[in-house]
Amino acid sequence: MNTIATASAAQAQQDIAEEFAFFGDWSERYQYLIDLGKQLPPFREEWKTEEHRVHGCQSMVWLVPSGDASYMHFEATSDSAIVSGLIALALRVYSDRPAAEIVATEPAFIQDIGLAKHLSPTRSNGLAAMLARIKAYAAEQLG
Fold this sequence. Notes:
The protein is mainly α and 143 residues long. The chain is 53% helix and 11% strand. The protein is built from 7 helices and 2 strands, in the order H-H-E-E-H-H-H-H-H. A two-stranded antiparallel ribbon has the order 1-2. Strand 1 and strand 2 form a beta hairpin. The longest helix has 22 residues, at 121-142.
């Protein structure tokens, strides 16, 4: 597992697609997602506020942005193991990047690894809501 930030969001998405290609079936991919979620950095309890909550998710999700247009960082967590894994993937693609790159990057990894077909509608909606929040925070920095 590469913990060093990759050169670009596009490279991060390519790496994710290659990692998921190793797994033969979706039970293995779900287990990998759960494992990724367990590797998220600790999330401070005081951040679990309504202000940071991502609505549209069936499970509880909190997302905290920091930084500015030149470099944005996101912290996030969920009370769901699989959703935490989805967060881990989204943060690999979108965190620690310039706001302009965040806004310009479409989440191709969702299609590339087959998530679109294998997530329940509520999880798909939640992932879309989280990605929309990340992009909205980045767009605000671009003003």
